[in-house]
UniProtKB/TrEMBL annotation:
HAMAP family: NDH1_NuoI. [4Fe-4S] cluster 2 binds at C72, C114, C117, C120. GO terms for cellular component: plasma membrane. [4Fe-4S] cluster 1 binds at C62, C65, C68, C124. The gene is nuoI. Binds 2 [4Fe-4S] clusters per subunit. It is a peripheral membrane protein. This is NADH-quinone oxidoreductase subunit I. Residues 52-82, 105-134 form the 4Fe-4S ferredoxin-type domain. It is an enzyme of class 7 (translocase).
Length: 195
């Protein structure tokens, strides 16, 4: 008899008790985030996509030292440095891309390998590389997840001139690094070239 009553309880009461839990949760506050349509703000120090920064005149901060590539534990960064060349040369890219002696001619970050740890940011001596709050890095093919220098460079803001050009806000590269910016007269061709 005990077995029969136990079978009836399991058969009738247990499913009702289970549905009772579901029924109670229908009236609770919803905690689900509507992610693609309503995005939550990230923390200020969130480690997202990388960005190569510029000086206020448009020159790149990257000096091609490759310290970020050496610091990367996932071997996700590839940098090829080149010398800045003042004046026209035949067959070579000429002009100044950064205030220093060198600049990063090729800069790639492979987001298939990157673990977004931020060690590259700590290694950068000029604060050329920082991390943004952009976290949507998914794509439908592998090739698009290897970001080139053009994908990583910060956009030109008003008043900036597209490199290559001479240093416009300081006499030496030390002025740039110390933040001692002095206004210099721009050549007319440089003003037109940036627009």
């Amino acid at each position: 008899m005990a077995e029969e009553s136990r079978g009836i309880k399991e058969t009738l009461w247990d499913p009702v008790a289970g549905f009772g839990v579901t029924f109670r949760t229908m009236f609770r506050k919803v905690v689900t985030e509507q992610y693609p349509f309503e995005k939550q703000p990230t923390a200020p120090r969130f480690h997202g996509r990388h960005q190569l920064n510029r000086w206020p005149d448009g020159l790149e901060k990257c000096i091609g030292c490759e310290l970020c590539a050496w610091a990367c534990p996932a071997d996700a960064i590839y940098v090829e440095g080149a010398d800045n060349v003042d004046g026209p040369l035949e067959g070579e890219e000429s002009g100044r891309f950064s205030p220093g002696e060198r600049y990063g001619r090729v800069y790639q970050i492979n987001y298939l390998r990157c673990i977004l740890c931020g060690l590259c940011i700590e290694a950068c001596p000029t604060r050329a590389l920082t991390m943004t709050n952009e976290y949507e890095l998914a794509d439908d093919n592998r090739k698009d997840l290897i970001y080139e220098k053009s994908d990583l460079l910060a956009p030109l803001l008003p008043g900036m001139v597209q490199p290559p050009h001479e240093m416009l806000i300081g006499e030496t590269d030390g002025d740039y690094y110390r933040g001692e910016f002095k206004a210099r007269a721009e050549a007319p061709e440089q003003q037109e070239g940036g627009q």
